[in-house]
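Translate structure to sequence.
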């Protein structure tokens, strides 16, 4: 086998995105606790400006990553959501009931468990949504390590759950993590929005005008006080599924962006946000309400929410178990849903701005996600049967 073919196979493997994410987080952890720690923090906090006649943006590098690069990440999520709603797993309501309700349970229970630890502190209470998210790339990557030993239906169930979880996280960010509104910029945002609507209605086959309108929309939404990454999702929903020539701009964009998001944008985000400083950390820091609430929400809350709702719906006859799966499979999958990493760190960055709380957020997210990954893989590996042929073709891997 040629080197280029081997590299292609490596990067196309389901686990590749999760491995890249894990390596970036590990590198951030090493750098943040080495002699390069001060340089690492200095670079992330270094202001970068884009100015025109003295007006424009001046933000630390970390915010350009979290507000700018992550808008592309959310754009890809939006493309996936639209595709799934129009022609994929979310098109048939019967296929959505079980994973959809499990996703809701998997968001509510972790949030409630987090609040149980942090209710008495009005500052940390605002991070209630941190353990509600699931990282698709990481979770599917761990599941992919089992190969064909896990039922194919389990992967579809996890993907659908995680996609709907992403949709829930987007709604949470829009509703609860918006700063002071500047309505004048929101009114101006209607102009690029009208342009995107026109391009979609006319079945435009050109990508550049969509990107241009989306960029203007991002600037105006950022200035309005609404979190700018939502511009990525909104823009994606106006990308035509089929253009006037019968081709699919949506499929082309999703296919073209996925490797850049999986292997560049998300690892950069992980490297910039996962650097837990361990120096001076004591047991009391580890067991503080903030990291403990996040970790407990991801490990225990997700398990109770996802497994509990699935059990209730199946026992009540409302939904059927995924084909070939048993209750141990569902328990293992529920643990994998507790890998919150990317979205949890992102929401943590929206919840807290000071370094002390963010260090605790990183600790809770990394610890909770790591424990969830180990328990999920261990449980599924324990119950896994011999490799067998997949019953259906593997679905497209998401970036989120």
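Result:
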């Amino acid at each position: 086998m040629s080197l280029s073919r081997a590299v292609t196979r490596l990067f196309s493997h389901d686990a590749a995105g999760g491995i890249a994410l894990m390596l970036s987080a590990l590198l951030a952890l090493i750098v943040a606790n080495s002699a390069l720690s001060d340089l690492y923090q200095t670079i992330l906090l270094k202001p970068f400006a884009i100015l025109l006649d003295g007006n424009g943006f001046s933000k630390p590098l970390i915010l350009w990553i979290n507000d700018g690069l992550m808008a592309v990440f959310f754009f890809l999520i939006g493309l996936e959501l639209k595709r799934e709603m129009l022609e994929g797993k979310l098109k048939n309501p019967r296929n959505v009931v079980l994973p959809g309700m499990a996703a809701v349970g998997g968001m509510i229970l972790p949030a409630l468990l987090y609040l149980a630890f942090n209710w008495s502190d009005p500052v940390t209470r605002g991070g209630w949504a941190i353990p509600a998210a699931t990282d698709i790339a990481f979770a599917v990557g761990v599941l992919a390590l089992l190969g064909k030993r896990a039922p194919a239906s389990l992967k579809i169930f996890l993907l659908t759950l995680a996609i709907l979880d992403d949709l829930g996280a987007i709604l949470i960010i829009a509703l609860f993590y918006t700063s002071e509104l500047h309505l004048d910029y929101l009114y101006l945002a209607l102009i690029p929005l009208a342009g995107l609507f026109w391009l979609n209605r006319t079945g435009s086959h050109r990508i550049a005008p969509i990107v241009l309108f989306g960029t203007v929309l991002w600037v105006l939404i950022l200035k309005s006080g609404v979190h700018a990454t939502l511009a990525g999702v909104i823009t994606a929903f106006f990308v035509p599924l089929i253009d006037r020539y019968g081709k699919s701009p949506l499929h082309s964009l999703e296919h073209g962006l996925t490797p850049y998001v999986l292997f560049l944008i998300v690892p950069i985000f992980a490297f910039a946000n996962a650097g837990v400083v361990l120096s001076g950390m004591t047991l009391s820091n580890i067991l503080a309400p903030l990291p403990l609430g996040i970790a407990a929400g991801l490990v225990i809350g997700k398990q109770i929410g996802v497994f509990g709702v699935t059990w209730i719906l199946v026992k009540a006859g409302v939904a059927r178990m995924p084909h070939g799966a048993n209750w141990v499979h569902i328990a293992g999958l529920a643990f994998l849903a507790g890998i919150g990493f990317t979205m949890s760190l992102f929401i943590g960055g929206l919840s807290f701005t000071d370094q002390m709380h963010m260090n605790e957020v990183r600790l809770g997210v990394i610890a909770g996600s790591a424990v969830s990954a180990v328990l999920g893989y261990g449980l599924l590996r324990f119950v896994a049967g011999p490799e067998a042929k997949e019953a259906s073709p593997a679905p497209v891997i998401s970036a989120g």
